[in-house]
Design a protein that fits this description.
This protein has 541 residues and is an all-alpha fold. The chain is 80% helix and 0% strand. The protein is built from 23 helices and no strands. Helix 3 (66-80) packs antiparallel against helix 4.
Length: 541
């Protein structure tokens, strides 16, 4: 890959990563406030389930399938004619509005039934079910705004706009924090204020995208989704890609479904742990995947397979360079991080311990989930959505069985025929009861298996990676990770203050890792050092 193209992808990744970092920091502030006010109990469980449902549907309809399927087609249309690309965008945007509008209407009508489908354990608590269903009605329009945002972001990324789409995601967190601080007492119960903040935040997040769309000449209104051939092409790719592009989100749904039948607070513990886990995943891994899809699609559209393979190889090395040490750091520092961010107000030491065990189990899957988000883009760029779908279907089946085997016996009243059957299945196949943490561990193991399978199947789309070279490069990262881990473990024995511990171990640990990588001659670490020295030189340092 040429240095110019590599630099372009690096700049795009950097822009998305920095703005995603801002959004994630705001998200952590939001979660810390939520934990302080509501802790982990009935109301927080109800909110997190209601919030998961439109988020899961938006992943299916927009970010996970429609937008991902549309980017390669849009790149191809743009390569041919800007007018055709403009018409395609208008039609696909209209299709997204139509589908999410139908989902919203159904959600408003059948909120109780949908809540029970996603969280059957709520059936034992009429009050929890009622609160969750009410919040679901309030939040369902959010799917419309955030789906429009996802499709528009895919187009803007292809056109070279990365900053505004990435930055707009922070708006939702700002609105939710504002409601928590100033408007929390206006609703009964107060948790409903967060539901209103989600819908309002989704609308406000979409509006800034209208500026670059207008500037680039793509603010053209809506089109007829039934006449434009691009919609049919998108549907052809989208339908089988629904599962494959949303593997992690479906696993989260499975976790929420099963956690609702465990001890009260289990949904919240998984949610709080997942938000911390999402920090490194979103800041770099998904940022890189977002920047890579347009580049891979352009290479595939131009028929330059060598360039595409080089781009993919570089991406896998870079994502490993970040997520391997991040995995070690998250596992070793899980408890002090959770204690520092969450443990105050309604969130006590017991909830810290439960969230810590979930975060450790989630963290095991950080590296394979990050790799999977990159590898699957190669299939999408080649317009092969069937292979990832088959792999994902098998993975999800494995995940459900493994989750049940690792979570143990559910808690609650299972008087119905189906309830008794579910109870007996859980009791029969339990291997090692880890409660909610077993659900997180099952997702990590299943995703690792899916990543291996997808990597082995890349030759099906004529993508041949230098696996020996990649394995050698990634293998070199193990010694630096071990040295970093020894440093963290040593410091933990001397420092008991959580804030001071993190202020010392995170930056110093990162320096130890990067310089150790340089010593074992990992090229990417040397590039980071050069870039940092250049940045410091600008400030006269």
């Amino acid at each position: 890959m040429s240095e110019r193209k590599q630099s372009s992808i690096a700049r795009a990744t950097g822009s998305v990563a920095i703005l995603t970092l801002v959004s994630r920091i705001l998200g952590l502030a939001r979660e810390a406030l939520l934990a302080n006010v509501f802790g982990a109990g009935m109301y927080s469980d109800a909110f997190f389930v209601a919030f998961r449902i439109p988020n899961l549907l938006r992943r299916f309809v927009a970010e996970g399938s429609l937008s991902t399927a549309f980017v390669p087609i849009f790149s191809e249309e743009l390569h041919t004619s800007k007018d055709k690309a403009r018409a395609s965008f208008a039609a696909v945007l209209s299709f997204s509005l139509l589908v999410t509008g139908i989902f919203t209407i159904l959600g408003l009508i059948y909120s109780d039934e949908i809540t029970l489908f996603f969280a059957p354990g709520f059936g034992d608590s009429p009050e929890k079910l009622a609160v969750a269903a009410d919040m679901l009605q309030i939040m369902f329009p959010y799917i419309i705004f955030v789906s429009l945002l996802a499709v528009a972001s895919g187009v803007l990324n292809t056109l070279g706009y990365f900053a505004i789409p990435a930055g707009s995601q922070a708006i939702l967190n700002v609105v939710m924090i504002f409601f928590l601080l100033f408007l929390n007492d206006l609703t009964d119960p107060p948790i409903k204020g967060q539901a209103w903040s989600v819908t309002i935040g989704g609308l406000l997040a979409f509006l800034p995208l209208l500026i670059p769309l207008h500037k680039s000449g793509f603010l053209v209104g809506l089109g007829n989704p039934f006449r434009n051939p691009s919609v049919r092409k998108v549907l052809t790719l989208m339908i089988p890609s629904v599962l494959s592009s949303s593997l992690y989100q479906v696993m989260i749904f499975v976790n929420t479904f099963l956690a609702s039948t465990l001890e009260e607070g289990s949904v919240s513990w998984l949610y709080y742990a997942d938000r911390l886990f999402q920090f490194p995943l979103g800041v770099f891994s998904l940022a890189l995947a977002t920047a890579m899809l347009p580049a891979l699609s352009r290479s595939a559209a131009s028929g330059d397979n060598n360039k595409m393979q080089a781009q993919l190889s570089d991406a896998l090395v870079w994502v490993s360079l970040i997520t391997i040490p991040a995995t070690a750091g998250l596992i070793m520092l899980a408890e002090p991080v959770i204690r520092l961010i969450y443990e105050r107000g309604a969130f006590d030491s017991y909830q810290t311990a439960q969230t810590t065990s979930a975060l450790i189990c989630f963290s095991i899957g950080l590296w394979p989930i990050s790799l999977q988000s990159i590898v699957v883009r190669a299939f999408f760029a080649k317009k092969d959505t069937l292979t990832p779908t088959i792999v994902t279907s098998i993975t999800l089946s494995t995940n459900v069985l493994l989750a049940i085997a690792l979570m143990g016996t559910p808690v609650g009243n299972y008087a119905s025929k189906w309830g008794q059957l579910y109870y007996r299945i859980c009791d029969a196949i339990t291997i090692y009861p880890l409660a909610h943490s077993g659900l997180a561990l099952a997702g990590s193991i299943s995703t690792a298996a899916a990543t291996i399978a997808l990597s082995l199947l890349l030759p099906r789309v004529n993508v041949h990676l230098p696996w020996k070279t990649l394995a050698a490069t990634i293998g070199k990262m193990l010694l630096p990770t071990l040295l970093m881990g020894l440093f963290i473990e040593t410091v933990k024995t001397f420092l008991s203050n959580d804030l001071l511990l993190l202020l010392v171990t995170v930056p110093v640990g990162a320096v130890i890792f990067l310089y150790s990588c340089k010593l074992v001659k990992i090229r990417e670490a040397q590039q980071i050092e050069i870039a940092l020295k250049a940045k410091l030189a600008r400030f006269g340092l």
